[in-house]
Amino acid sequence: MNKEGIIELKDLRFHAYHGCLPQERIVGADYNVSLRCTVDLRKAAATDDLKHTVDYSLLYNIVKSEMGTPANLLEHVAGKILKNVRYYAPAVKHATVTICKMNPPFEYAQNALDAEHTAACVTLSF
After folding, report:
1. CATH of 4-125, one of 3.30.1130.10, 1.10.10.10, 3.10.290.10, 3.40.50.1820
2. CA–CA gap between residue 8 and residue 85 (Å, rounded)
3. Of 30, 52, 87, 99, which has the fewest CB atoms closer than 10 Å, so is most exposed?
4. What's the rounded Cα separation, in Å, for the pair 65 and 87?
5. Residues 74, 78: Cα–Cα separation, whole Å
6. Do residues 30 and 103 touch, judged by C-beta distance below 8 A?
C-alpha cells in the first residue's frame, strides 16, 4: 500500500469579514475553503483507529477558527490555517488550502448569472 493518503475537506462554506475595504468588515462575504492534507494512512487503514490518522474535525475547527478571525488579506488567513495545521496535526506532511471569496468587490459580471459565480481565490501550500 502506498504510504501517502489524502484527507480533504472540500468547499467548506463560511460567512466571514475579511478584506481591506471598510464595507467588507461590516457586511462580510461568503467564502468557500478547501483543505487538502497528505498523511501516512497505512496504520489507520490497518487498525481502524482514529489515533493513527488526522481527525478531519480537528482540521475543520482550524479552518473555522481562522475564518472567524477578520483579516485584511486572504493570504494571511491561508497562512494561519497552514501554520495551525502544522502545529496541531504534525502527521500532515503536505497541505494545500484554497480560500475563495464569492462575489468579491469588483466589477466583472456581464449578467446576473456571472455575478453569482464570480470568485477571487488564494491558494497556499507547505
Report:
1. 3.30.1130.10
2. 13
3. 87
4. 14
5. 6
6. yes
